[in-house]
Q: What sequence folds into this?
């Protein structure tokens, strides 16, 4: 017997705003019934797994430990700039001038 992952849940301060961010990042729409003021939202990803944002107003003692690794359809640096323009912030830069390496970004609207 085995289990299937149905969603990845992300705690945040504003579920709708975070869902808008991830919708822009992934190019996939929010669930049609989700809207401003909802305390839970979903973006359906290919294959049926959802990105699920849920509000949690309590302060967190530590950072989220669920990184989502992205593979852009463009260059790494162009995608980093696009995500920064969408509201992400650069947490750690491991990019090398020769084109390899990675960047760690924090999504907007997550509790401190």
A:
């Amino acid at each position: 017997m085995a289990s299937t992952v149905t969603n990845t849940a992300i705690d945040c301060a504003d579920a709708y705003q975070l869902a808008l961010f991830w919708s822009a990042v992934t190019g996939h729409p929010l669930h049609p019934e989700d809207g401003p003021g909802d305390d839970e939202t979903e973006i359906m990803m290919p294959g049926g797994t959802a990105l699920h944002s849920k509000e949690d107003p309590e302060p967190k003692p530590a950072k989220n430990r669920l990184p989502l690794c992205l593979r852009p359809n463009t260059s790494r640096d162009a995608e980093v700039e696009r995500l920064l323009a969408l509201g992400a912030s650069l947490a750690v830069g491991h990019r090398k001038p020769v084109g390899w390496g990675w960047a760690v970004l924090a999504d907007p609207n997550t509790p401190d």
